[in-house]
Amino acid sequence: MKRILSFLPSTLVAIAILILVSCNTNQTGSSSKGQFWERELGAVQNTALNPSDAQKELNLKVDLIPEGKYGRRLFREMTPQYITIHSTQNPTGDAYAHAKALNRGALRGGVCGYLCWHFTVQGDTVIQHIPTNERGEHADFDGPGNRYSIGIEMCEHQGNDQLATMERTAKLAATLMYHHKIPVENVRAHYHWPREGYNPPNKDCPHFLLENGQPGTTWRWFVGRIQRHYQRLAAYDEALQEQRMKEEEAKRRKQMVQRFWNVLTDFVGLG
Questions:
Q1: HSE-CB of 238 using CA atoms within 13 angstroms
Q2: The domain containing residue 80 runs over which residues?
Q3: How many CB atoms lie within 10 A of CB 129?
Q4: Nearest residue to 105 (alpha-carbon basis) of 75, 86, 129
Q5: How many domains does the chain have?
Q6: Residue 74 is part of a domain; what is its CATH number?
Q7: N or C: which end of the chain has fewer CB within 10 A?
Q8: Rounded Cα–Cα distance for residues 156 and 158 (Å)
Q9: What contacts 124, CB < 8 A, 6 or more positions away?
């Protein structure tokens, strides 16, 4: 019996170690997709980025739905407060095909009778379909997802580079955050906006960034990458502001020296 009792503590320690290792393995596995993509893409640079240069990197093409037609047949002004991320779940349509469909009113639905969103992204380009100050039809009918969010669709057609599409989408979302002063917590998956009358009401979208149809570790990784791209733009503003403060301080010192010199020369009669 004594031998058995002396053996128990070491056995319990071994079991505890196995449990901890098992927990850590499961934890890593749950976020392995995001970790793999992070390695493939590489870390986001931590240097400041001029917002104008960031805009150029997007390779943005503007192909707006005709004003007054289809998804824009009703003018509904919007002050964007959110960004909603979608995936097309369309294996045959690239960004240009979606632009063409929107421009001829081929996609029916929504409150106004036609679907529309703001941007479609594929591996090498971004196409804009409606202005960011106009409401789209892409999320939740007459809910806040449509009334207050900029809709971004990520392409999934065959031959498209999914990693490049996600990265370009992250950069686009960061740029929109910067220009519209949208906080990162307001970047939402389509899942976030329930659709009345649907079962389930919360759509599994963008499906490749969700776990079991819901936002999890992969979604948090993606939003974190958006935030890191945004921080580069914010850092540029901070550096610019610091440079202006230094220039203003140098100007004030120069003026002080000049005033002191004027007083001194007047005092000694050199003026």
A1: 9
A2: 49-245
A3: 25
A4: 129
A5: 1
A6: 3.40.80.10
A7: N
A8: 7
A9: 59, 161, 164, 168
Q: pLDDT digit of tens for each residue in the chain (271 aa)? A: 334 334 334 443 343 333 333 333 333 334 589 999 999 999 999 999 999 999 999 999 999 999 999 999 999 999 999 999 999 999 999 999 999 999 999 999 999 999 999 999 999 999 999 999 999 999 999 999 999 999 999 999 999 999 999 999 999 999 999 999 999 999 999 999 999 999 999 999 999 999 999 999 999 999 999 999 999 999 999 876 666 656 566 666 777 777 766 766 776 665 5
Domain annotation covers residue 209: yes
Could you tell me the two tokens for 257? Answer: 């020296």
User: What's the predicted TM-score (pTM) here?
Assistant: 0.81
Chain-centroid distance, C-alpha 91: 23
> For residue 235, is it within any domain?
yes
Asked whether residue 8 is domain-assigned, the answer is: no
